[in-house]
Amino acid sequence: MRIVIAGSSGLIGTALVATLRRDGHEVVRLVRRPAAAADEFAWDPMGARVPEEALQSADAVVNLCGAGIGAKRWTGSYKQELRDSRIVPTDVLSLAVAAAGVPTLINASGVHIYGGDTGDRVITESDSTGTGFLATLCRDWEAATEPASDAGVRVVRIRSAVVLSPHGGMLALLRPLYSLGLGGRLGNGRQYQPWISLADEVGGIHFALSDPTITGPVNLVGPAPVTNAEFNRALARALHRPAPMVVPAFALRTVVGEMAQEAILRGPRAIPTKLEEAGYSFRHQTIGQALASVVGEARAG
Predict the structure, then answer these.
(1) How far is it, in rounded angstroms, from Cα 3 to Cα 207?
(2) Burial class (CB in 10 A: 0-12, 13-18, 19+), 157
(3) What is the DSSP letter of 144?
(4) End-to-end CA separation in angstroms for the chain
């Protein structure tokens, strides 16, 4: 397949490009600087410009664009950046894909679209969306793909959990704390913490690209949901470090701000129903397996 990827330089994009090329696919990267390689095309999402030649003969477009949810404190300006960096590129690519007749669009989204007040109820792709900034952001993000779906494009909206990687992301922030003996649960620890390994994030996207029956929302989450307390116990075991600390909810809200309540102190108990029903086999079935693999890779690398 000829696959065009926007957001190819990030954690997920870098791994996805390598995997697709290893499996013999042609990968074209959309970049926001002057093209510097034969596989690159410069595009300007804020100027609504996508080179027509980039999408010629493309079998699929994968859009992974978006500023980091936890990269900065959620000021009013950064919340607008979070929206603009997702919704604008998605709208532009959706229109371009529809015009070019590309048959498939895989578009990023987030599992927090379900909101955080779901308690112990198991959440599948058929559940309704929730409330709050992140839920609204993800809902509007997904709505920006409608020009493509209205044109008959197969649109897959991947609702990703926190991605566990040996190369960065959340674990890069947590490992130093555990090394100092400062690991532990956040708040009461009973909130669910959706997770997925980088290998299964990339594997799930690859699977969705190759299976034409998969469409609409797809939960990219590990198959065994865990609470924050369970996650931290598993991480402590993987790192062979104690995790005695408890970070009170009020302290998180003071230090992190609104993001604490939206993304840390609550989370849906989501499961990957569509992927499992379609036959995807997870490389990491449990949080213990995922963390042992990721920590091992980080130590080896």
Answers:
(1) 13
(2) buried
(3) T
(4) 31
DSSP for 156-215 reads EEEEE-EEEETTEEHHHHHHHHHHTT--EEETTS-SB--EEEHHHHHHHHHHHHH-TT--
Shortest CA distance to 62 belongs to which of 143, 144, 156, 140? 156
Whether pLDDT at 189 is above 80:
yes
SS3 247: strand
Nearest to 163 by CA among 194, 186, 136: 194
- Give, for 2, the enclosing helix (H) or strand (E): strand 2-6
Beta 195-197 vs 168-169: how paired, if at all?
A: unpaired
Kind and range of the H or E run holding 146: helix 146-150
Mean pLDDT, to the nearest integer, of 5-12?
95
Among 71-75, 80-84, 157-161, 180-184, the minimum mean pLDDT is found in 180-184
> Per-residue pLDDT tens for 230-278?
999 999 999 988 888 888 888 888 888 888 888 888 999 999 999 999 9
In whole angstroms, what is the distance from residue 295 CA to residue 235 CA?
Answer: 9
% of the chain with per-residue pLDDT over 70: 99
Backbone angles phi, psi at 164, to 5 degrees: -95, 120
Residue 121: partners with Cβ closer than 8 Å, 6 or more residues away: 269
Pairing outcome for strands 195-197 and 162-165 = parallel
